[in-house]
Amino acid sequence: MLNQIKVYAFVGPSGTGKSYRAQMVAGEKKIDFIIDDGLLINENEVVAGSSAKKASTKIETVKKALFINKKESEEIQRALKKYQAKSILILGTSDGMVEKIAQNLNLPPISETIYISDVATEREMETARKIRVTEGKHVIPVPTFEIKKDFSGYLLDPLQIFKSKGNGQKPYISEKSIIRPTFSYLGNFTISDNVFKQIAEHIANKLDEVHRVLKTRVQNMAEGPVIYMEIEIVYGYNVPETLKNFKRKAVREIENLTSMNVMGIKVVAKSIYMPEKN
Question: Domains (ranges, CATH) in the chain?
Answer without folding.
Answer: 2-179 (3.40.50), 193-273 (3.30.70.1350)
